[in-house]
Structures are given as C-alpha cells and as structure tokens.
Write a structure and sequence with these properties.
It is built from 12 helices and no strands. By secondary structure, it is mainly α.
Length: 220
Amino acid sequence: MNLPARLPRIMNVASFGAGVLMGAVLVSLAPVRVAGGGDVDPGRKKAEVCVPCHGPEGNAVTPGVPSLAGMPAFYTHWQLIMYRDGRRRDAQMSPFAANLTDTDMADLAAYYAARRPRARPVEVDAARAAAGRPLAQRLHCGSCHGPQLMGQNQVARLAGQDFDYLLKRLRGYKAKTTSDLDGMMTMVAQSLSEEDIQNLVHFMAGAAPTTAPEPKGSER
C-alpha cells in the first residue's frame, strides 16, 4: 500500500490562515478509502509481541502507553511507517518497526482497528473536563478526530485514550518536539496554554469510546 501517496494534502494550505485552513482540512479529510487493507488474523498473531506494552486486544494499562484498539487502520499503519523511516522515534518502537514489512504493518493496523476499545482508568477532574469540552469545540477537534473523537483516516482516536500519553503528545506538539505527520497538530497547539492542555486532556481521556468495532476474522 502506497500510503504516502494517499495522504490528504493538508500541508499546502497551512499558510492561508487558520480559518481557511480549517475549511481546507474539512475538504481534504473527506472519506479516504484505504484500499488493499491488511488481514486481521495474521495481524493478531503478529501483535502477540505487542501485548506486554499495548495490552491484550490493544487495550494497554501502563500509564504513558497508548491503547491501539479501535485506532483507524490508516493511522496505525502511518505511525508504523514513521517509526520505520525515523520520522517518529522511540526506544522500543523504532527497533521493532525497523523489521516490519508493508504487509506486517497493514495486518497489524487491520487487527487493532477491529479491536473493541476500552476507556482507560482515569480520575478525571470534572471541572477541567467541562472546560475542555467547549475548547475542543472551538478548536474544531471533531473535524479531524471525528464528532466522538474516535479518529478517522490518518487521525488518531482520542476518546478514552491514556491520560499521560495525551498530555505528553499535546505538550510535545506545543514544544514542537513531537512527530507530526502533516504539521496540523503542531500548528493548533501553539495557541494552547498549559491550562488549556490540561483541560483538553481531562475532557478527552474522560470521553468514553463510543464506536465499538465488531470482532472480525476468526474471533467473530
């Protein structure tokens, strides 16, 4: 699968300003059908080595480690490509991805997309979550991440994701130290204060995953 050629072109509109940009993103993120997707059953076998960190069925329990269950296949496949080619770096993920073939990545992405996501245990500050909701609306987070923040295409699921992971990623975008496929999150994060980031994370981590993929393959 030639994913780079299928990425919606949103970088070229960055200089047009935030208002125009958001409109362009809405157009560019029109449904992108991923052709030639991976196979769930081989993906499940290949994902066995991922369980110690990402948990059974892709639902991690370790703080700071993202859950992969329910992530859009396009997103997971892209992240693995970025680890493999060095655009995203991690002491554990980079060596692992270096040995993956395109088929391995597609199978893993298909497997995790078909897993049922579970909300991570978190003590959400209700006041911060309440402040984060309208902020997410003003930032149009749902335009890219979906109305329920379940992700779509190359955009990650945020609902019910690990609190520490979300906090690390948003702070990284703000500091321009986090890998960013198209530069969108880095740009959006520049306007955020630490208070904003905290409020958004409380809101997103506390949001229950609402779209539960049905089991596929032999697990049906």
